[in-house]
Every structure is written in structure tokens, then in C-alpha cells.
Amino acid sequence: MEIIVRDTLCPHHPDEPVDLVTRLRAAVLDGTLGQVTIITGERSGTFPKSPAPHDAPTSRIPRSDMMKCVVGEDRCARARALAAQLRHGRGSVLILDCSCEIRPGILSAFANLTTATVLVADRGVLVRRGQVFATAHREGRLALILDSLGHEGDLEYLGTLFLTGGDRALLGDILARNAFRLPWTQAVCQLAQRTHVQCAAQTRDIHGDDVVVGGALAGGSYARTYIRLHPASGLRTVRKEAVGAGAEKLADEVGWLHGLERNARRHFPEVVESRIETYGVSVDLVHHHLPTLRRLILSGDIDEAEAARWARRTLAALRRDVYPVAPLPAPADYVRRTHLDRIRGRLAQAANALPERRRLWTAAEVTVNGVVLRGLRQLVDDLERDPAVLDMLTPERLVRTHGDPHFDNILIDRDNHRFLLIDPRGNSGYDVAYDLGKIWHSVNSLYDLIHDGLVEVDAGDDAIDYAFTSPRLVAFYHDVRERLLDWFLASDWSQDDAHWFFKVRLAEAAHMCSVMPFHIVRDRPDTVALACYARGLELINGFYTDVMAETAKAPVLPGV
């Protein structure tokens, strides 16, 4: 990679150039840099010298043929010199406003990029308001975001631009077409209008260290998740970090991943780095630019047969490589601890997060699509008070489970006929039905459609009407559901447990009744949270009716 420094003086140090040699020495010695060009004004003098002793092998000044100094008396002359260097040079280049912009980790983080990238300060767009940034990525509107560079907007340009070899001449032409008088940030914005330019943000992680963020990701329930340009490995990693209540969950996930045997580990992204400290937990995983099973379905890229096939392959791998680890006896309070208490806790969180809907959360009866259903609290209390039902629903043994294998946590590599599982909950002692319930709340609860806003909701104090807006996708998921149910029955998932599917249905209902708090965002419509609540009420009411009938008669084959 080549580096071009546009000047050696800037408002941060107007009278004394920064020692560039010291800042670049390590990158030259380890082979990251092959050429350094300094474009300096008349007032800057000659190329800054390093004061380091010549006999220190790790502080030697690089060879003179790797360093070039070009003098430009004014801004136009320096822009002309930059354009010439861009046109005549080859390969990727990192353009810095000043040598003081060379920050720790920036060179190694940018060295392995393959797309034009600008470095900005994170003022909320990239991480805290990651959804806004991600939307801009998907819609290809990065040029609109880059219009705020150099202004008092959300993005503050940090004087660093990476270009691939193919983009060098394009930027040179932009500078020349404007007679080398165009302000630099405007030139970068014009570049973004003619080619794909992505943003990376300089920010701090939970440990207080500087990190370069390449984009925000939808994370877990309590973790902040983003693409990190990892300096040590040169990889793009998925960084997950959490503090407070989320730290323990993330620490469990990290320990769970580190404890996987080789056969199980191959189904998950590789752990690059992890830190578990008293004030926070972080983990870096190898980033795989692959679509999820949910995304393939919603985009129409696969049919029902292929979707069901990927789901079966995923479950078969979990059953073969993850579950068979030292099963534990299930405690007598498993159902209460795992399902019922979780529903109660999340219902309370939803009421606190959306107090204007408190009557709906606490109603003894709620009418959903014209059907009167019992309230969630009453049903949970009744289930807990029935020892026969609890005994029937308590598994004999607990195993190591993924904990969250819904369709958006399954990455699909169609070209290489493989998949990867992401975001495990790190459960070392759960029922297999917990995982199956996650699959079922994709194909039966239709959580995927609700999550992506493919639903309309009208709610009052004690009533919710909802409707899915894509009959085609409803039919698609139901087709996948039937294919999976046939496979479950044919491949002996019941393990001679006549009530196994009731356990799956309880897990599905509990999952659906527990996700509302994660979809409540202040100053935004509560459509998704209300649809999850309505669907959860339908599921748990139907489950309660069927399980009570089951305790009074001989076992029958499970139904949907």
C-alpha cells in the first residue's frame, strides 16, 4: 500500500511538522507500506527528519527510494501534485490530510480493505444509530451521507481516505476537472457519487481503546454489534461488546464458543479475540459476508424446498455435533425458571418501556383479531400452579444447545454448500425443545415477517387486530413448516417422548411472548412489539387449551 500525505502542517500544529518517519517506521519495516509521498507547502520546509539514533535497528529511517517529497506552493499546486501521483502510481493508496492523522491501528486496519473508504468520527450515525447507517448502505445512498463531511453534521471527516487502484485515476480526474480548486471534502463527495465509497468510524470500545468501525450490525438483545477493522489480524471482524446485564450473557457466549470441540466449532465463525473484564465483555469473530436464511427467503432468492433443506441441515448438525455432550438431569423447576419467569420478566420490561400500553399488557382478557383470549399473566400463573402439566413439560435431561437458531442466525454459503451459525446464547443445560421452538417461531409464529415489518396492527386498551401484508410469504413459511414437521416425525426427534412437541410449542410461545421489549424504541411506532404480543397470546392460549386436554386423555400425535 502507498501513503500520500497532503501536507505536513495543519491547524493542529501550524508551525512545526509532525515527525512522519517515526509514525510510519513500523509499517514500512513490516511490509505494510511500499511507498510514501509527502506533498508539502513552501512553509513546511524539507522532508521532516527522524531524530532516532541510526544504530537502533527498529528505528532506522526507511530507504530514500521509498520516500518522496513534492513541494507545492499553494493549495492548487498541491492538488495538482496529488492528481499526478494518483494517475502515475499503482495499487491501493491511503491519502492523509496531514501526517498527524496517522493514528495507532489505522494503517493496519486500512491495509486490507478492498473498497474505497473514508474515516469519520462517530457522532452517533455509525454505532448508536446503526439502523440509519445500515439503511443508507443498502439503498446505495452513501453520497448523501458524505455531503455532510466538513460541516456540522453527524459525520466529521478525519482526514483519511483509502482508494483501490481502480479509483486512483477517478479522483485525479475529479481534481483536474475542477482546475484543482475544489475543496478536498467536496472532491471526496463527488468521488462517492461516481463510485462506491464506504465509511469507517474512529470511536472507542467499551474497554476505552480506539477502534475503527466499518458498519453497524443488528446485534443480540443486550450487545452492541458492529463490523471492526481489526488491526492485529488485518481481518474484518464482527465485534460484539456488552456491559451491565448483557456482559454476563456475552461472557457465557464466549466461554461456550471456546469450549466447542472441533466438529462443533466448524459450524460457527472463528473467535479472533475476546476480553472478559469486570466492566465489560467483548469478542471479535471472523466476519463472513453471507446472507441469512431469513434474508434469502424474504428476498425471494430461494424456494420452499431449499429453505426447508437448509433448516434440516442446520438442525441435523446441531443434533449430531453440538447436543451430544454430557447430558444433565433437568431440575424440577426447569419450566418455571426457563419459560414462565422469562415471560413474566419480559412482560414487566415491556410495561416499563411502553407505559401508555400498560392496560394492554396487564389485561385479564385481550381480543386478538376478534377472538377473546386470556391475558398472559393469568395463563402463566395457571401453568405454574398445575403440577401435572409441569411434570409433563419437564424434560428428562438437559444438553448443550445453541439457544437462538432462528432463521436470521443461520448464514448460508450457497456457493460452497455450507452454513454457519451465529449468535449462540451459550446454553450449557437446556432442553433440545428450546432450540426447536426458535425454529418454530420462524416458520409457525411467522416472527420473520413481523420482525421485518410485514404486518399491520391496530391496537386499543384491550384489543389488537393484526394482519400480515404478504400472503405469499405466509404460505411460503407454512410450506416450510409442513416439510420440517414431516422430517421431525420421520427422523425420531421425539426420542420416545410422547409429549415432545408440547415442549416445542411451549418454547415457541415463550419465545414469542418474550421478545416485545427488544422491539420497543422510543419515538417509533410500536407495530412490531404489538404484533409479537398478539401472536404470543394466540400461541400460549392455544397451547394451554391443548396441554390441559392432553393431561386428561391418552397421548396423541402432535399437531400444529
UniProtKB/TrEMBL annotation:
Pfam families (UniProt xref): APH
Highest rank taxon of the organism: Bacteria
SUPFAM superfamilies attached to this UniProt entry: Protein kinase-like (PK-like) (SSF56112)
Cross-referenced InterPro entries: Aminoglycoside_PTrfase (IPR002575), Kinase-like_dom_sf (IPR011009)
Aminoglycoside phosphotransferase domain boundaries: 217-441
Protein name: Aminoglycoside phosphotransferase domain-containing protein
